């Protein structure tokens, strides 16, 4: 019976290791998606919003940018409410 308990312990460690790898993979995918997201700009105010901003789907946000750099080059500034 002793070897069975040891094997159960090892299998739990392997499962825990797999879970850590899965969490790291999901975190990487999340960062990749967020960094590739669009930015919405409000033409009236000259402010752009990222996907994390509560004003991202503002009805006045009619300009779409592929990156923050593109929005800044167009003369827009980042929303101060964005995290």
Keywords:
2 helices; 83 residues; alpha+beta
Gist?
With 83 residues, the chain is an alpha+beta fold.
Structure description:
With 83 residues, the chain is of the alpha+beta class. It has two domains: 1-36; 39-78, no CATH class. The protein is built from two helices and four strands; from the N terminus they run H-E-E-E-H-E. The protein has helices at 2-35, 68-73, and strands spanning 39-42, 47-49, 61-65, 77-78. It has a four-stranded mixed sheet with strand order 3-1-2-4. A hairpin with a 4-residue loop joins strand 1 (39-42) and strand 2. The model has no long low-confidence stretch (mean pLDDT 80).
Gross geometry: elongated
The arrangement of helices and strands along the chain is HEEEHE
DSSP helical segment count: 2
As residue ranges, the low-confidence spans are none
Number of strands: 4
Strand content: 15-25%
Provide the number of structural domains. 2
Oligomer: single chain
What is Rg?
22 Å
Helix amount: 40-55%
Could you outline the blueprint of secondary structure elements for this entry?
Layout: H1 2-35, E1 39-42, E2 47-49, E3 61-65, H2 68-73, E4 77-78
Parallel strand pairs: 2-4
Antiparallel strand pairs: 1-2, 1-3
């Amino acid at each position: 019976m002793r070897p069975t308990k040891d094997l159960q312990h090892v299998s739990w460690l392997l499962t825990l290791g797999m879970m850590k790898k899965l969490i790291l993979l999901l975190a990487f995918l999340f960062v990749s998606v967020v960094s590739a997201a669009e930015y919405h700009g409000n033409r009236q105010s000259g402010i752009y919003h990222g996907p994390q901003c509560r004003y991202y789907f503002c009805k006045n946000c009619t300009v779409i940018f592929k990156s923050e750099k593109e929005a800044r080059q167009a003369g827009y500034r980042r929303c101060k409410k964005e995290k």
